Amino acid sequence: MKEGAVYLFYATLGLILLLLSLCVLRLILFVAIFLLSGARVYFWLYPNLVVEEQFWASFVPLYSLEWRKSSAPKTTVCRKIIEGLEKNDLGLQSGEDLAVIIHQVSFYRPIDIEKVDVNYYNFDNPTAFDFKLIVQVLSDLRSGKEVDVPIYDQKTYTRSSETCRVCPKKIILFEGILCFDCKELRDLFHLKIFVDCDNDTRLAKRVLRDLKKRNRDLDSILKQYIDFVKPAYDDFIQPSKKYADIIIPRGADNLVAIDFIIQYIKEHCKQPVANSLDTKRLLR
């Protein structure tokens, strides 16, 4: 009797391990096929981490940080920059916030899910964003005005009837994707940064994010990447890399580069009010 129970236990355990092994093998197989098919994984800081410094009254230089692809930890880089700047004396009043972050995803154009299949909608194409509104919002912030930023619901793919009121701060960061592609927006930035990350790391983060947070299956994740994300990189992101003033490898892990940006902004805050930014002088 005991021998039978032991046999059943090990048989059940073996079956469970076999099923787990098959799941892991399936994941490895899909990733291998995906990579061998030429679909590379790009992790890129889009030209949008607009670290916008509001000098005294109206002059607000924009620092643009661009990630490779939409699953990059853009906000992490923003936070690290803010944390680094908070350690410096930038002339803040007591209780005054140093910076504000604006996200490009807030400016997605709303879509009608009854007419559009979101599984076949290209969220990585420039047409998916309202660039006219982005330019208007950032221009108003530069002039010292308060702005209303849209609230985009990523579950319903629509804009909320409410908006988020944003006040100008000493530093304004704008993070997102595809901002180097728009010249009118690109011209607002005083420092454009392209942060390049390891291909495998970017793919792994994208897969894990969509599996855990968006409850998607592996097949749809890879299909979306092959059909939309990778082509968007080739057609829009990679060509716009030439507009970057600084290219940083290893993403948010590159603390040396982030510290360089922090020191750059710190020095810029000390400069007198001007109508233009002498980037070459500051980067010497």
UniProtKB/TrEMBL annotation:
<keyword id="KW-0067">ATP-binding</keyword>
<dbReference type="InterPro" id="IPR004728">
    <property type="entry name" value="Sec62"/>
</dbReference>
<comment type="similarity">
    <text>Belongs to the uridine kinase family.</text>
</comment>
<keyword id="KW-0812">Transmembrane</keyword>
<feature type="transmembrane region" description="Helical">
    <location>
        <begin position="6"/>
        <end position="36"/>
    </location>
</feature>
<keyword id="KW-0418">Kinase</keyword>
<keyword id="KW-1133">Transmembrane helix</keyword>
<dbReference type="GO" id="GO:0015031">
    <property type="term" value="P:protein transport"/>
</dbReference>
<keyword id="KW-0547">Nucleotide-binding</keyword>
<feature type="domain" description="Phosphoribulokinase/uridine kinase">
    <location>
        <begin position="70"/>
        <end position="257"/>
    </location>
</feature>
<dbReference type="Pfam" id="PF00485">
    <property type="entry name" value="PRK"/>
</dbReference>
<dbReference type="Pfam" id="PF03839">
    <property type="entry name" value="Sec62"/>
</dbReference>
<keyword id="KW-0808">Transferase</keyword>
<dbReference type="GO" id="GO:0005789">
    <property type="term" value="C:endoplasmic reticulum membrane"/>
</dbReference>
<dbReference type="GO" id="GO:0004849">
    <property type="term" value="F:uridine kinase activity"/>
</dbReference>
<dbReference type="InterPro" id="IPR006083">
    <property type="entry name" value="PRK/URK"/>
</dbReference>
<keyword id="KW-0472">Membrane</keyword>
<dbReference type="InterPro" id="IPR000764">
    <property type="entry name" value="Uridine_kinase-like"/>
</dbReference>
<dbReference type="InterPro" id="IPR027417">
    <property type="entry name" value="P-loop_NTPase"/>
</dbReference>
<dbReference type="GO" id="GO:0005524">
    <property type="term" value="F:ATP binding"/>
</dbReference>
<comment type="pathway">
    <text>Pyrimidine metabolism; UMP biosynthesis via salvage pathway; UMP from uridine: step 1/1.</text>
</comment>
<protein>
    <recommendedName>
        <fullName>uridine/cytidine kinase</fullName>
        <ecNumber>2.7.1.48</ecNumber>
    </recommendedName>
</protein>
